[in-house]
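The methods section describes the discrete structure representation at length, but only in general terms. The central task, working out the structure tokens from the amino acid sequence alone, is never made concrete. Nothing conveys this as quickly as seeing an actual entry. For illustration, here is how one protein appears when written out as sequence plus structure tokens:
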Amino acid sequence: MSEEKENKTQKNSFKELERMQLEQYKKNTEKIGGRVKGSLGTIGLISDIIELYFSRIVDVFINLSSSSAEQNVAEEVEEEE
């Protein structure tokens, strides 16, 4: 009879251990999900900033270089006269 009690105790302890592991797994899954969502949000923000401002930055550099080129041409024309 004592063996039966011992077997039941072992079975119950294994069930308890399994339940504890499932609870811990659920908590860890929620934490990981939150971290992934946070990382994706950050990446999304950075990509939005790049998308919005990169084309404008390129335009600014093009305008700067073209205005410099126009000034150089105008100076050369003035020197020839």
